[in-house]
Amino acid sequence: MILTYAMIGTWRMAHEGLTAAMADLKQGGRSTDAIETAIQAVEDYPFFKSVGYGGLPNQQGLVEMDAAFMDGDTFAIGAVAGISDVKNPISVARQLSNDHFNSFLVGAGASQYAMFNGFERRNMLTERAHKLWAKRVKEINEKNLSPYDGHDTVGMISLDQQASMAAGTSTSGLFMKKPGRTGDSALSGSGFYVDSEIGGAAATGLGEDLMKGCLSYEIVRLMGTGLTPQQACDQAVYPFVEKLKKRYGKVGEFSLVALNAQGQWGVATNVEFTFSAGNEQQAPAIFMANPGPDQTTIIEPISAEWLAAYEKRIKAPVD
Questions:
Q1: Residue in 241, 311, 299, 313 with CA at minimum distance from that of residue 266
Q2: What is the pLDDT of residue 30?
Q3: Max alpha carbon distance in the chain (Å)?
Q4: Residue 27 burial by CB count (10 A; 0-12/13-18/19+): exposed, middle or buried?
Q5: Rounded to an integer, what distance in angstroms lies between the CA atom of residue 295 and that of residue 208?
Q6: Which of 9, 48, 277, 281 is the 20 to 30 A CA-CA neighbour of 39?
Q7: Which of 108, 129, 111, 131 has its CA nearest to residue 121?
Q8: Tell me, what DSSP letter sits at residue 241?
Q9: What is the Cα–Cα distance from 279 to 67, expressed in whole angstroms?
Q10: Contacts of 166 (CB under 8 A, 6+ apart)
Q11: pLDDT at 149
Q12: Location of site Cleavage (predicted)?
């Protein structure tokens, strides 16, 4: 059965924005608008510490963000990396997707483009995020701990009633990263990919390892051969994780979500991973995924207890 509209997004943080965007899709809204609406909601919420406002800063205390946008009808892509002091990087990436040249901007060039084109400026470093940064600096100096802790990207794919699809990503990147570092999130084929005739995929996890494979593109390619999104995710992700572990010696966190042109979704992960998804027949809901036996994925609805603990954790006072 063909479902006329659907969305999926990485992590629990995607849910509210995805829910609002799906309400627009139900009324005939476009997939491109849905991606921007949903990701803006994540970027604007200060307690999601890996995306946008309240995102965790780099080694020098500056919030540098990456974002990308892709139109599945035209393959138009816009992206920014290392952008700073801009309220909604996803919106900058979307506007850049309209340009044939200069559609991927980095660092000062990305920030200047946003300023010259009237995008809202904002100091993205919150007091809470600065406290977390200062605490980590102290721990590094006193306990010789690894500086790197946290790197979750919000990635989303949407399908509208006109059979058009879009994808987008946004992240503040690896906590305590070196200035100028970027991961996979803004890289086509690695952090995201979408083709309206087939489907789309998006990734979250350790960018340095995710970019060693082009898993988002591979998932879309496999769906194009007739595999379901779940089959494509399992077949693309788990063998590559094992290959990387064998040949590189170690592997970071990998989680990918996929949505096909029929509104079906799939997920694969090598860690405990939450996501939000919904379609015409199923209201948006939050799920928990874990790696299962024989390169499969176990997916279950999230529990009320987990949700309550999550809300308490992300808003806990910073000592």
A1: 299
A2: 98
A3: 58
A4: exposed
A5: 22
A6: 281
A7: 111
A8: H
A9: 25
A10: 31, 32, 34, 35, 69, 70, 71, 72, 157, 158, 194, 200
A11: 67
A12: 152-153
Q: Measured between alpha carbons, how far is 241 from 236 in angstroms, rounded to an integer?
A: 9
Structure tokens at 114: 């946003």
Of 241, 294, 299, 244, nearest to 270 (Cα)? 241
The count of other CB atoms within 10 Å of the CB of residue 127 is 10
Core vs surface per residue 231-253: b (16+ CB within 10 A) or e: bbbbbbbbebbeebeeeeeebbb
Measured between alpha carbons, how far is 110 from 55 in angstroms, rounded to an integer? Answer: 18
Annotated binding site for substrate: 181-184, 204-207
Q: Tokens in use for 317?
A: 């006072």
Query: What does CATH list as the number for 6-314?
Result: 3.60.20.30
Is 153 one of the catalytic residues? yes
Q: Which residue has tokens 């600096």?
A: 137
232/257 Cα distance (integer angstroms) = 10
Rounded Cα distance between 184 and 198, Å, is 22
Interhelix angle 15-26/31-44, rounded to 10 degrees, is 150
What are the DSSP calls for 53-100, one per residue?
A: TT----TTS---EEEEEEETTT--EEEEEEE-SBS-HHHHHHHHTT-S
Instruction: Mark the binding-site residues, compressed into ranges.
Output: 181-184, 204-207
Catalytic pick among 19, 153, 169, 171: 153
- List the domain boundaries for the chain: 6-314
Mind listing the pLDDT tens digit of every residue in the chain (319 residues)? Answer: 456 899 999 999 999 999 999 999 999 999 999 999 999 999 999 999 999 999 999 999 999 999 999 999 999 999 999 999 999 999 999 999 999 999 999 999 999 999 999 999 999 999 999 999 999 898 888 876 676 766 689 999 999 999 999 999 999 999 999 999 999 999 999 999 999 999 999 999 999 999 999 999 999 999 999 999 999 999 999 999 999 999 999 999 999 999 999 999 999 999 999 999 999 999 999 999 999 999 999 999 999 999 999 999 999 999 8
